[in-house]
Amino acid sequence: MEQKNETSTDFILLGLFPWFRHPYLLILIVLLIYTVAFAGNSILILLIWLDSHLHTPMYFLLSQLSLIDLAYISSTVPKMVTNYFTGKKNISYFACVTQLFFFLTLGLAECILLTLMAYDRYVAVCNPLRYTVLMNPKVCLQMAAAAWIGGVLAALVHTIYPMNFPICGSREINHYFCEMPAILRMSCIDISAYEMVKFVSTIVFLLVPFIFILTSYTLIFLTVLRMNSSKGRNKALATCSSHLTVVSLYFGQAIFIYMTPTSSHTPEQDQIGAVLGTIVTPMLNPLIYSLRNKEVVGALRKCMGRCYN
Known about the structure:
309 residues, mainly alpha, disordered N terminus, 11 helices
């Protein structure tokens, strides 16, 4: 359908799985997931802020992860749902650039933060006597700042560069938001140089952190195996397994999308990877950390008890 307010610089978002026969069912599912993700991450942030027992480096970093997930899912879903209910599909060039920038910033910041969270667990398990020194409040703030600043700087490069490529023919984006691979497919010039830049950046921001995380957890598990206390061993494994689950969800889809050439996977595969990364994972993260963490569950019960009293 032709959009009345469409201009020559507007893009057309075809939406989530445009070939699906029951789009309203998809929207309802997405709205449900968004509600759960918004509520879960908001509650987790609130609990960490209110409960003094959760004022530790691990939970401070976890609150930053929840904040990122909250912004991550909010950067794409509201626009997609609005387009569906209004019947409009166009998005302005400026809005597309803004969406791409925030999407990349949050994704890269999450990658850095997950790496720093692995370092936190490494210090806690392998160097417990130095934990309060190595992970003091100042260091935690510096870690959070590094994640956000690193995400912003890298996102600027990967927003300004591809968005200046000339576009030939249709400006239809076979996606539900402005994502880099979808934008690159519309370019009418050779993008092999940028593909190399993207590949190198992916190594720096995805592969190297992933190797660092695996190394950290290898050392953690070796230390855990040498523990004499079964209680300490179980506690260490419980906190580490939650983080490893989140790492697997995030890095799996990110490496698939960004470490392979754009031409090697279809728009449908890009959408599936994006849904897992930007919609499903932000919903699962707070559930993984809360349901498998006795301290968070205890803080929730305490908070609910105060509300009822």
